[in-house]
Amino acid sequence: MSEQPTHEEAAVVEDVDTSLPLFHRTVRPEWIDYNGHMSEAFYVLVFGYATDAMMIETGLHAGYRESTGCSLYTAESHLRYLREVAAGSHLAVRTRLLGVDAKKARFCHELYVVGAPDDVPEPEAVPVATTELLALHVDQRAGRTAPFPDSVRERLASLVEPAPAWAGRSIAEVPAVR
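The line above is the sequence of Thioesterase; the predicted structure tokens follow.
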């Protein structure tokens, strides 16, 4: 199975509190670091694939990118590692659109460990990691941001939901020791 989500994988809608499907992966042995848990780089990889799945679901798929020359570029992200994840763990990523304007989209992902490959997180489940992202709609041919087509912006706007309490935070200051 390809790591990157296919259109068919992204189009399966789960019964959760969002209009976007859950994205699933299983932690591979090579994702485990010298501390015995999933290495930080692979959280980014899984979240990146969840973003790809969100793009497919909202019409920003390969055909769109090819025909328009436009894509989403991540301009900013904030990732929180909350709990360790072991090899073989089954992962489910919940994606929420938090806001959209003419050229930008703000969204977040919450990563959960679930019991089986296609399981839905329990309502009381706590994420093992979260990330919040700001993405720009970029015309790759022109090399600058460009407005979303109305149909894409409207689709994104229809999916906007309230931000979780953890979103919008920054990294805490640490005083310099001299």
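Note on the example: The chain has one domain: 7-158. The domain at 7-158 is CATH 3.10.129.10 (Thiol Ester Dehydrase; Chain A).
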